[in-house]
Amino acid sequence: MGSIDTKASSADYHERALTALKDKSLFISDAFIDGKWKSSDKTFPVYEPSTATVLGKVADCDLADFQNAIKSASEAQPKFFASTTGTSRGALLRKWYELIIQNQDDIATILCLENGKTYAEAKGEVVYAASFIAWFAEEATRAYGVTIPSSTPHTTLYTTREPVGVCGIITPWNFPAAMITRKVGPALAAGCSVVIKPPSETPFTCLALTKLAVEAGIPPAIIQVCPTKNREAATELATNPLVNKISFTGSTGVGKMLAKLAAGTLKKLSLELGGNAPFIVFDDADLDLAVEGAMFCKFRCTGQTCVCANRLYVQKGVAKEFTAKLVKKVAALQMGPGLDTKTTQGPLVNKSAVDKVKEHVADALSKGAKVEFGGSAPDNSGFFFEPTVLSGVTADALVSKDETFGPLAPIFEFETEEEAIKLANDTEFGLAGYFFSRNIGRAMRVAQRLQVGMVGVNTGKISAAEAPFGGVKESGYGKEGSLYGLEDYQIIKSVTIGNQDA
Ligand code: SIN
Known about the structure:
The protein is of the alpha/beta class. It folds into two domains: 13-273 and 477-491, Aldehyde Dehydrogenase, Chain A, domain 1; 278-464, Aldehyde Dehydrogenase, Chain A, domain 2, CATH 3.40.309.10. The chain is built from 14 helices and 22 strands. The protein has helices at residues 13-19, 63-83, 86-102, 104-115, 119-139, 178-190, 203-215, 231-239, 252-263, 287-299, 316-331, 351-366, 417-425, 440-449, and strands spanning 31-33, 36-38, 43-48, 53-59, 147-148, 156-163, 166-170, 193-197, 223-225, 245-249, 268-272, 277-281, 309-315, 370-373, 388-391, 408-414, 429-430, 432-436, 454-457, 472-473, 476-477, 490-497. Strands 14-15-16-13-12-18-19 form a seven-stranded mixed β-sheet, sandwiched between helices. Strands 9-8-7-10-11-21 form a six-stranded mixed β-sheet, sandwiched between helices. The N and C termini lie far apart (82 Å). Succinic acid (SIN) binds at residues 174-175, 178, 249, 272, 305-307, 463. Succinic acid is lined by residues 174-175, 178, 249, 272, 305-307, 463. The active site is at 272. Keywords: Oxidoreductase.
């Protein structure tokens, strides 16, 4: 495995990158409230993870800012819905999509700097993010109602779909662009307004996307952005009666807290929470395909995705061969700063993320696991941890219960299909699950028995604008993207027209 390019990691790394932006006005540190960019005396720092240096300081919104944003979004939303059609909202989204694509290099640079993922991954994320806007530009025109045969004579019964209203959007740092667009796209398509609390680790991408949304012609008060580190202020989104819906992606702990707070005003909720994805390799699998799948869904974003393979269950007969093949690929990863073209594995987001990987590795080793590759954090200033493969991991290891959210591939061995399913389902989480097998019967059986919201069979890649994204159990509820994504931002109204003979 390659070492870190210390030249690229020097303190002026991000300054040089920001100077090279084609449109420097996309790097914004203000909030966007009531249609105006708003600076603040109070700011918080955002770090560049490969050097652990401050990338910039962003306006730290307070309670009054959130209240103003919510009030303004609430006044603007009915006018927006009344003055647009699905087709015209779709056209606005399409324009926003085009601007994102035109500015993809700059957005990817900003994203790469604040998140740490490689530039190639950042570019991929910008295109992925834009695909949700394109998808919901189309879906905006498909908000069908139904006519229902009434059981009462001389009566017509039909349904319409209306926007839920003001949506509080709370997003994570691991996908600074895609988690914004996967929520804001359907919200705007439905005719809602949004107040976004972007992640405090990665607010710059959201602010750049917002600038492009306004340039696309989306009415300014329909999209409001309140960056903050102030938990009390952000809580306003979950308690203010003018907010009708919360969409949150993040940890199960925070999701449960938001659900309790939102219960006070019975807000509609979409919660995309933690995962603990099993990745099962059966002895009838194509092992090269399985390794390719593991590389993608374990090491994408340095292991920091909710759908990451967290537990690799490999059938005993193929465990040695699979491990050797995986180690060969992992050893070829090149750790370094995201903007360095040689880098194929970026840093983690912050120090506590590195500490969690260290804890999971130490715990697994103390219970008998063996390091096949990696296993430690390099001695430098950035938030790096070596891509790591452990074998012989046991069911009592911390990593079997808790998602690492880092570049650790722990290999557990199993003997039978029944055992693999039992182990895979032995968790309170149920976001994603993967397995590899060339047996069609087994493929059908296991896909049905895994207690998750999303299954990858012979692939580690399950995310796309058209694919329903969301979990079961304590991984949350609601579906994002796909033909279901718009519904989460709508209410169904029924209209009964009676006494038509009168
Ligand atoms: C997530 O980690 O929450 C999102 C991952 C994805 O969209 O693939």
